[in-house]
Write a structure and sequence with these properties.
about 110 residues, five-stranded antiparallel β-sheet
């Protein structure tokens, strides 16, 4: 008779809702960023309409806590995230970063494709 998994474990284990993991590698890549949202290139997509909370780090500065909503999913490729909750100061930081980026890296404004 096969032993249950818990009988074969060598170390004690704990399950607790306060334990969290942040993936460092592989980390999603930001394809593009605007004041209203971003596109994440990551094959591990979420569901359309799903809320998401993450830290965005721009040019090595302090991270920005963003609460967003998945608006479009390209299975196996990535997803468009709309910023839902963002402080005025953090919105200004993103706006300044976009405005001061090299012109060849900025695409013309148009309707968001959420």
């Amino acid at each position: 008779m096969k032993k249950p998994d818990f009988d074969r474990r060598l170390d004690a284990r704990v399950s607790d809702g306060v334990i969290q993991v942040e993936y460092v590698v592989p980390s999603p890549k930001v394809r593009d960023l605007s004041v209203s949202g971003l596109y994440l290139q990551d094959p591990r997509t979420l569901q359309r309409g799903q809320p998401i909370e993450f830290l965005l780090r721009i040019a090595g500065e302090e991270p920005i806590l963003i609460r967003g909503m998945v608006r479009r999913v390209d299975p196996g490729e990535g997803m468009a995230i709309e910023f839902i909750q963002l402080s005025a100061a953090d919105r200004r930081r993103i706006k300044e970063f976009v405005a001061h980026s090299a012109p060849e890296k900025i695409s013309p404004a148009g309707p968001d494709e959420f």
